[in-house]
Amino acid sequence: MNDSESRTSIFAKIETANAALKTRAPLPDYDVAITHSPGKLEGSDLWEIFCRNFKAVNGKPMSSVDELAGFLKSTHQLHGYCDPALFDAIGSPLAAAGLTVETTYDRSRYDDYQFGITRATGAIAESGTVILDDERTSHRLAALSPWVHVAVLQRAEIHRAISDAIAVFGASPNIIWCTGPSKTADVEGILIEGVHGPGEQIALLV
Known about the structure:
By secondary structure, the chain is of the alpha/beta class. The protein is 28% helix and 23% strand. The chain has a single domain (39-205), classed as Rossmann fold (3-Layer(aba) Sandwich), CATH 3.40.50.10420. The N and C termini lie far apart (61 Å).
């Protein structure tokens, strides 16, 4: 086999390995009773539990557009994107507060967007995690490339435990769990946030 044939064979195998599965693999069998973190689930109000655990991973929970506008203005994040479906409720009040809000995300101008506001599919109280998927997120890059990402969620979309969220996975081929801002660490264990995604992760309850 010559070099050209070898390359063709290798890339064919890679393409086959990366092809979408025709059928989804079954979820692993595990005992739900031993997978919860009791200490992280103390309390009865899911939003309060989520907020506590979200703050523990440096996320910022918010419950009003005024609070969001104040944060964006105080940190000089004044130009961003908002899901068109959320513009009346969130984008318009932000624009009235003096921010520049676009409802079309231009990939060629990704550096122009300091914040991105998209819908979350849900959240997990136990871990302080925001769930995003392609079925609800208007533009994945708008959720991942700006320094500030605002995930908008409803109280009914908050799952108590990780196992509860797994049990209601939808048909989306791309599901992202965001547990606070993006993080990475070097070999010395120094944690750096905002390297591979947003440096500020906000969960806005509506």
